[in-house]
């Protein structure tokens, strides 16, 4: 779909309610993961110069755009299922002057077939765009060029979650790994860890506070909308429990020699 304005109400009306929540919540957020500018810089520094990158579940392609602005020879293929986020990413790539090196494809990452190999394969907060973590690592093993890196942004339990938190999320404890179990899974799949960072409470706050606020602002502008109550309940739960136990592990991993 071609949008005259990917940030306008027509674009929003063309997608599902769930996709709308993602787009509205992230209206003022470029990188849709709890990562500071410094963490992003450190992660991007692990990518070989002149890289061909695959950014899977790319959101607005913030990671790919950051790489292309830093490295004038790098190029990226970006896969995103949400057409409004993809269109916003393309518009931002034009604004950043990197659109000629960024190919945006609206597709389900589980169905899209790569016809080349890459120097970097990123799945930040988007493991499910390929499948399980094991499937992501297997994908990396077959689609990485020699010397390449897989960039992961994976939810982990930094501490054992409280039963109230699991009940609120409707989640089971075994849906996320511990930081140690994640590292062990990566090594067992034949990768070594070149960079790792557990997002700090400050990174979570800097990411989530505007996210919840955007949803409330939107609800206010509508007069009445369930987003307001949902956002406030979720934010309260994050402050009470989530910030202690919900971790986001950022990693660059390379195939073991
Ligand atoms: C948490 S967001 C992270 C976006 C981006 N990686 C970033 O850090 O800015 C996860 C993204 O993955 C996308 N996604 C989820 N499942 C997908 C799939 N099967 N194929 C392609 N994209 C998918 C979502 O639409 C969403 O934009």
Task: Give the arrangement of secondary structure elements.
Layout: H1 9-13, H2 17-25, H3 37-44, E1 52-56, H4 62-70, E2 75-80, H5 83-96, E3 102-106, E4 118-124, H6 133-143, E5 144-157, H7 163-169, E6 177-178, H8 179-188, E7 191-198, H9 201-222, H10 226-245, E8 246-255
Parallel strand pairs: 1-2, 1-4, 2-3, 4-5, 5-6
Antiparallel strand pairs: 5-8, 7-8
Helix pairs in contact: 9-10
The structure holds S-adenosylmethionine (SAM).
Short description:
This protein is of the alpha/beta class and 257 residues long. The chain contains ten helices and eight strands. Helix 9 runs antiparallel to helix 10 (226-245).
List the main descriptive attributes of the protein structure presented here.
257 residues; 45% helix; binds S-adenosylmethionine
Describe the overall structure:
It is a single chain. It is built from 10 helices and 8 strands. The chain is α/β, with parallel strands linked by helices. It has a single domain (9-161, 173-202, 247-255), classed as 3-Layer(aba) Sandwich (Rossmann fold). Helix 7 links the parallel strand 5 (144-157) and strand 6. Helix 9 (201-222) runs antiparallel to helix 10. The longest helix is centred in the C-terminal third of the chain and has 22 residues, at 201-222. The chain is globular, with a radius of gyration of 18 Å. Bound molecules: S-adenosylmethionine.
């Amino acid at each position: 779909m071609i949008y005259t304005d990917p940030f306008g109400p027509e674009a929003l009306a063309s997608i599902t309610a769930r996709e709308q929540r993602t787009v509205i919540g992230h209206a003022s957020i470029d990188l849709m993961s709890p990562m500071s500018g410094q963490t992003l810089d450190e992660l991007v520094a692990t990518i070989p110069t002149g890289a061909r990158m695959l950014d899977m579940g790319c959101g607005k392609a913030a990671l790919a755009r950051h790489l292309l602005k830093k490295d004038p020879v790098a190029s990226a293929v970006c896969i995103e299922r949400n057409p409004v986020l993809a269109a916003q990413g393309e518009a931002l790539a034009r604004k950043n002057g990197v659109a000629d090196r960024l190919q945006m494809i609206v597709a389900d990452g589980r169905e899209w077939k790569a016809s080349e190999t890459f120097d970097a394969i990123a799945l930040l907060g988007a493991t499910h765009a390929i499948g399980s973590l094991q499937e992501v690592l297997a994908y990396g093993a077959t689609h990485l060029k020699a010397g390449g890196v897989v960039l992961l942004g994976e939810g982990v339990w930094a501490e054992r979650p409280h039963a109230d938190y699991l009940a609120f999320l409707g989640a089971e404890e075994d849906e996320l790994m511990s930081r140690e179990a994640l590292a062990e899974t990566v090594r067992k799949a034949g990768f070594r860890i070149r960079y790792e960072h557990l997002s700090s409470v400050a990174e979570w706050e800097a990411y989530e506070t505007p996210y919840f606020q955007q949803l409330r602002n939107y609800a206010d502008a509508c007069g009445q909308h369930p987003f307001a109550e949902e956002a406030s309940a979720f934010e309260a739960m994050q402050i009470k429990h989530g910030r202690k136990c919900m971790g986001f592990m950022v990693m660059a991993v390379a195939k073991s020699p």
